Amino acid sequence: MGIVSEQAIDDFQELIDKVEEPLKTTFKNVHQGYLRETLIRFLKARDWNVIKAHTMLVECLRWRVDNQIDSILSKPIVPSGLYRDVRDSQLIGMSGYTREGLPVFAIGVGLSTFDKASVHYYVQSHIQINEYRDRVLLPSVSKKNGRPITTCVKVLDMTGLKLSALSQIKLVTIISTIDDLNYPEKTNTYYVVNAPYIFSACWKVVKPLLQERTRKKVHVLSGCGKDELLKIMDYTSLPHFCRRGSSGSSHQTQSVDCFSVDHPFHQQLYNYVKHHYETQGQAEPAKQGSFHVGFPEPVAERVEIAKTIESKLHKFENCNGLSKPVDDRKASP
């Protein structure tokens, strides 16, 4: 439904106003003062069904309380070498902002290996980035722009996507399910770039399984996507892998690699978490193991998508040329 239903929002707020502590407190960390926008996100996620949206939000709040999500930004991943390993194998970063003020998150889908730490560290890292985005970045950019900005855009780099991705499907499904159930409608648009043939083949079978509102968010761009992305952001906000002509070995490219632990975004995030840990009276973070979060059962749509991708990838196991770039003319869905 594209039309905002004021009655649905009012009814939803009336129900949420009745939730008791500690759900009420954690809800403040969710909406950050942008109550209406938050209610709309959950309503969109449940096709504007107030009862279903209410159930979804209450379950989200309980998940936050049960897993102490409100305190996750004071739980650094230590030692720093382990955090570097996580960053080197879970490629995600923020490269800048669109001209409308939305944060631009870059994700290295094809080259992420998730093989240098336990699954719990990767989940912890992902949730920390979500919480830092929602509780620090978005409120700050909203204040700067004088209007609510509660979503971001994501640029997905498919460079290097191979059959090895098969071993990562379970972890990716866990992370995407956490997002679906607890951070719904936080991504305005997904831009897919550097797509090899194997992605094109998988996208063809996955696309029909997605809900219409999700399909409309996904844009598969030709090549590195530079020309299209420059229509919505300045060059300085382009993820490094979208800067055609840049040498991977150049100092300039390395300095703007938004996946790197040395990038300003990751430095700011890590220092923020470390500072909040230290305010609890601790001088230096001590290794205490990962921050374990309960993994929700994947929704039926995610299960079907994962099975479909696995099936398709298995069919390619004996094929050659899986990393061949997709023809630009075939890049659009």
TrEMBL record:
Residues 79-239 form the CRAL-TRIO domain. It comes from the Eukaryota. Pfam families: CRAL_TRIO, CRAL_TRIO_N. InterPro entries: CRAL-TRIO_dom, CRAL-TRIO_dom_sf, CRAL/TRIO_N_dom, CRAL/TRIO_N_dom_sf. This is CRAL-TRIO domain-containing protein. It comes from Brassica campestris. The lineage of its organism: Eukaryota, Viridiplantae, Streptophyta, Embryophyta, Tracheophyta.
